[in-house]
Write a structure and sequence with these properties.
It contains 14 helices and 20 strands. It is of the alpha/beta class. The strands form 5 sheets. Strands 11-14-15-10-9-16-17 form a 7-stranded parallel beta sheet, sandwiched between helices. 49% of the residues are buried. The structure holds nicotinamide-adenine-dinucleotide (NAD). Nicotinamide-adenine-dinucleotide binds next to helix 7 and helix 8.
Length: 494
């Protein structure tokens, strides 16, 4: 077979040229640069802060490519920085969030960051499943989506970003956040600190990017950006609806209105302490927090007395009416007109609510409450303030049905205080909520005083539940046919 003769370089000619140049002192001609694509400018050094959605997505895409190269160990190191900052800087950042948003309680803003640092799920959740048999091996791996677009609420601005960032990076993703405009400054400061520390250690910047001047327009741009592979929203009905209507896959942590049922078998003092702990936390801003209570008539008066013993302030009927008129207002037009909490009282201290009702608060008051009719606007409205309406019910069946009605089918969170297992089961089946807490405060459902892990994004209508790193991964199956079996082969059977 004929072969082509390789062309040898003319060595003698090259040597002659070099000697001639040395004699004349002329500098050698510069070597020609290979033609190729011009490298895009890197976004390193921006520490995640962008005014343009497109730039933020491009920076997060660049960071995603870099994250892919550092493996699980790199993800783990990045997350450790976020966790450390959220514990070490909790007082400073929590105070910043409290002053910027002007809602909730300072000690709980701080605590929310600290518990996320300690309790949010990490890379240990990203395990593979293996199927091994006569026909070989199949490994199901959990691969990242890429860049995730996240929307976060004012009720926990930096905590939601922190929890999302830990889970999303553990899953191998990067994220661009469009925060609530009223919590954008603390969001930017937290994101800047996270990225600066990760960049210093790993040389990767912008794992978490933030739209510094967020608006509904930037949210829509983020939803529709072709570089965004998955959406994760945490917020109320409007943003949940917008995400569910988006053309991209969305993980939706939507609104709740968690009801509580107390029946005649409950330990009333324990129930009262639990209800106060859950409903007063951060002035009732948590989406899982107790919002209305249905108590059977046989123990109604005893339960209200237990609430007073546990430190809550009981309002009289005229005081409840006065507070209702100020705290719940109408919004929207025509068929969309509905009751919403008044912004001036949302997330305010119990003492502020007591004064608005015409009552005198004592020092350290955490919660006010009062008896209401089932159709009081506090019952169907997600009030997000430390006042709880208590509704008297004939029996546990009525209590469960009223609880169901008040939850609006969000299937978010419900709580029961009872030792009647069958009542618990009936309530669990009817309300069919993502979190169902028995005989404890609502936050036990997030592992705070109960078992399990913590996240401030609880995906309700889309069904992923308390989000973890696995929520932000795609299943990828890798199959090897026949080889790597150690148990023998099916074709050896007669
Ligand atoms: P919100 O709905 O007013 O705002 C949430 C976010 O959505 C903000 O960033 C806001 O700018 C954005 N947004 C609002 N409408 C939008 C639209 N049409 N398109 C795109 N973005 C839009 O809620 P909030 O007051 O900040 O937070 C409280 C609400 O969030 C409550 O309803 C609470 O139950 C819910 N929440 C749910 C969870 C959960 O895990 N399920 C956690 C926290 C809060």
């Amino acid at each position: 077979m004929a072969t082509a003769t390789p062309t040898c370089p003319d060595i003698a000619a090259i040597v002659r040229q070099v000697i001639a140049e040395l004699r004349t002192g002329a500098p050698p001609a510069p070597a020609a640069l290979p033609a190729g694509p011009v490298a895009a400018p890197s976004f390193a050094g921006r520490h995640g802060i962008f005014t343009s959605v497109d730039e933020a997505v491009r920076a997060a895409t660049e960071a995603f490519r870099q994250l892919e190269r550092v493996g699980i160990a790199g993800r783990k190191r990045a997350i450790e920085h976020i966790r450390r900052i959220s514990i070490d800087d909790a007082v400073e950042l929590g105070t910043m969030e409290f002053h910027e948003t002007r809602i909730g309680r300072l000690e709980h803003k701080i605590e929310k960051l600290q518990v996320l640092g300690a309790r949010s799920p990490g890379v240990e959740f990203v395990t593979s499943e293996v199927f091994s048999g006569d026909h070989g091996l199949a490994v199901v791996e959990h691969a990242p989506f890429g860049v995730i677009g996240a929307i976060t609420p004012v009720t926990h601005s930096l905590p939601t970003i922190t929890g999302n960032a830990v889970s999303m990076i553990a899953g191998g993703n990067t994220v661009v956040v469009n925060p609530h405009p009223s919590g954008k400054k603390v969001a930017a400061e937290g994101v800047r600190r996270f990225n600066a520390a990760i960049h210093r250690d790993l040389g990767i910047d912008n794992l978490v990017c933030l739209v510094a001047e967020p608006s509904l327009e930037t949210a829509a741009e983020l939803f529709n950006h072709r570089g965004v592979k998955l959406i994760c929203v945490t917020g109320g009905p409007a943003v949940a609806k917008a995400a569910l209507q988006s053309s991209k896959r969305a993980i939706v942590a939507g609104p709740g209105n968690p009801p509580v049922v107390v029946d005649a078998t409950a330990d009333l003092d324990h129930a009262a302490r639990s209800i106060i702990t859950g409903a007063a936390y951060d002035n009732n801003l948590l989406c899982i927090a107790e919002k209305q209570v249905f108590v059977v008539a046989a123990v109604f008066d005893a339960m209200l007395a237990a609430m007073e013993r546990a430190g809550a302030l009981r309002l009289t009927a005229p005081q409840v009416d006065a507070l209702t008129a100020k705290a719940i207002v109408m919004a929207g037009e025509g068929a969309h007109r509905h009751a919403v909490p008044c912004k001036d009282l949302l997330g305010q201290d119990a003492a502020v609510l007591a004064r608005a009702a015409g009552a005198a608060p004592r020092d350290g008051l955490e919660l006010v409450f009062g008896e209401t009719a089932p159709d009081n606007p506090f019952v169907p409205t997600e009030q997000m303030m430390p006042f709880l309406p208590f509704v008297r019910c004939k029996d546990v069946e009525e209590a469960i049905h009223r609880a169901h009605e008040s939850e609006h089918g969000f299937r978010h969170t419900a709580i029961i205080h009872s030792h009647d297992v069958r009542a618990m089961t009936r309530m669990g089946r009817l309300l069919d909520t993502t979190l169902f807490v028995k005989n404890g405060p609502s936050m036990a459902g997030l592992g705070l005083g109960g078992e399990g892990y913590l996240s401030f994004s609880i995906a309700t209508p889309t069904g992923e539940g308390v989000t973890t790193p696995l929520t932000f991964t795609r299943q990828r199956r890798c199959t090897l046919v026949d080889d790597l079996r150690i148990l023998g082969s099916a074709d050896t059977l007669d």
